[in-house]
Amino acid sequence: MLRYVTTRIAYAIAVILGVSVLVFLLVRLGGDPTSLFLPPESTAEEIARFRSRMGFDRPLIVQYLDFLSRAVQGDFGRSLRHQEPAMPLVLDRLPATLQLAGAALLLAVFLAVPTAIYAATRRDSIFDRASLLVTVVGQSFPTFWLGIMLILIFSEHLEWLPPSGRGSWAHLVMPAITLAAYSTALISRLLRASMLEVLQADYIRTARGKGLGERIVVLRHALRNAAIPAITVIGLQVGALLGGAVITEEIFAYPGMGRLAIQAIANRDFAVVQAFVVFMAVIVVSINLCVDIAYSVLDPRIRLK
Amino acid sequence: MNLLDRILRSRLAAFGLVVLAVVVTTALLAPFIAPHDPAAQDILSRLLPPMARSEIGLHVLGTDALGRDLLSRLMVGARVSLLVGIAAVSVAALLGVSIGLIAGYEDRRFGRLLMGLADVQLAVPFLVLILAVIAVLGPSLLNLIVVLGAAHWVQYARVVRAETLALREREFVQAAQALGAHTLRILLRHLLPNLTSSIIVISSLLVARMILYEASLSFLGLGVPARIPTWGGMIADGRSYMGNAWWVAAIPGLAIFMTVVAINLVGDRLRDLLDPKLRHAEK
User: What is the pLDDT of residue B279?
Assistant: First the structure.
């Protein structure tokens, strides 16, 4: 067990190192990164001075090691626009995004899990077919359009909910629904499929044969095993929700990390972009690590492989 | 029974196929069947509702803020959506299948390295990475296709590698090896044909996702340059006029939605028919 955990942690660190290389190379994709950081009207002398100040004239590997040693200390340079260190800027926005992604995840799980269980136990019923159709539909909406239509209906026409910003719970309703739509559909489809598979297993027949009530068979025996693949997907969805928050936050002018990142990209403020990408990768990798370890606790076969 | 008949036996998939046929035909014929010039502006007839008339004639879906005919723009926009969807998936498939084949057949260390790279890519907030890359390279149709394609090789590589690892041990491959067949020949003539159904299934569902990504990126102004009409760009244009002209943003969204639903319905059916193993193996 300990060996399994240490290998997984080492692997997670390697993945984050990989992300750091990616982020480092990102600003050098177009060749000399100087042009990304300086205004276009800069003189040749200014450019040369900036190059040597930032160390862009050194060998690439030296630049990377320097970038890495700063990054490990949380130093991603200063935001050109805000004139502040980049990482604290990103972290300032973290609570807002966590609140949004958390609300969306709760919504998705509370909608998807009962739907999937009910649909799986009544296979091919009207409810089952309808829920399947709804999940296909839910995975086909452009997220940003759903958000815009919600604003049109509930803010412009009915005037029930505020169209943008953050503050009260009312500000959270539409962004959370928008963000949750895709994940709800995905979780519901997956859980339904794995429930159907589990319900055909021999031990379910045994449980029924013993005369256990259908409720106990479904909730105690079937759900517990069907939940394992669903939990992995829910874990993966946390990363997807944090990433999807980028667009949702932009539509609802919600002051989270994603909106900060989009603005940083529009302003070519790459220190902030780099800090954001690395921070998100650390979150996603940590969640995957936790899911892996939780999994190996639930199912010993995995760590023996 | 051929595949088309079997797809059509599901009513939903048949519906999807019909919608898709309409969209593809419209996209192909757009320059000939569009009722008006999609770029022609007429500031006097701006934001006309559907079925309204202007000096140049009937506007079936109304006009946008610059007085451009929405139906014509929608038709031309279909070309971009489909082009980006199909081209980006081709790039992804080419990259992912090659990498998956090599990783599965050749070398275990190389395979593990590549799968590590896949994990790196999956750990990164995908949309932000694409946005950042396009911000560095500059927005253009080609950059969009290459970046979207390059960001999706993982889906193919994982499945192809896993199946190649299993196929490698089968007798027909070992027979080919014993006969002295060249590695490239084994990969292309013996392994690839056994992978086609998985590749088709992944591709069909990925096209739908690519169309959604293209729309999102164009909506954010970092996809296709603004002078080319796109569905995502049209929604972004219409967003400012939602209070008094909801249709400008609503109609292109419906077009995206219908197209993506259609592709997903056909893709799901294909998955059920071609690959029972993949049915539960979603992301």
Answer: 46
Higher-pLDDT residue of A113, B111: A113
CA distance B104 to B117: 15
How close are the terminal C-alpha atoms of chain A, in Å? 12
- Measure the CA–CA gap between B33 and B75, rounded to whole angstroms: 9
Among left, alpha and beta (phi > 0; psi -120 to 50; other), residue B124 is: beta
**Domain B3-29+52-282 = CATH 3.30.1490.20:** no
Say yes or no for a CB contact (<8 Å) between A22 and B280. Answer: no
Of B125, B232, B279, which is closest to A246 when you measure between CB atoms?
A: B125
Alpha helices in chain B (DSSP H): 3-8, 11-33, 70-105, 108-123, 126-137, 141-150, 153-167, 171-178, 183-185, 192-219, 231-239, 247-274
**Neighbouring C-beta atoms of residue A50, cutoff 10 Å:** 14
Minimum distance, in Å, between the CA of residue B133 and any CA atom of chain A: 7
ipTM over 0.85: no
Which two structure tokens, joined as six digits, stand for B66?
């610059």
| Domain chopping of chain B, boundaries | 3-29+52-282
CA–CA–CA angle B239, A239, B212 (5° rounding) = 40
According to DSSP, the residues that pair with B53 across neighbouring strands are B58
> Are the C-beta atoms of residues A22 and A273 closer than 8 Å to each other?
no
CB contact set of A277 (below 8 Å; sequence gap of 6+) = A19, A22, A23, A26, B124, B125, B128, B129, B132
Burial of residue A291 (CB within 10 Å: 0-12, 13-18, 19+) is middle
Q: Whole-model pTM above 0.80?
A: yes
CA A187 to chain centre: 14
For B:246-265, CB contacts with A below 8 A are 246, 249-250, 253, 256-257, 260-261, 264-265
**Of the ranges A45-49, A166-170, A286-290, which one carries the lowest mean pLDDT score?**
A166-170
B264 has a pLDDT exceeding 70: yes
Substitution target from A9, A15, A190, A270 for chain B, most B beta carbons within 10 A = A15
- The answer to whether residue B133 neighbours chain A at the CB level (below 8 Å) is yes
pLDDT per position as a tens digit, A152-207: 888 877 878 777 777 777 788 888 888 888 888 888 888 888 888 777 777 878 88
Q: Which residues face B57 on adjacent strands?
A: B54
Per-residue pLDDT tens over the stretch A15-28: 888 888 888 888 77
Torsion sign over Cα B36, B42, B44, B49 = positive
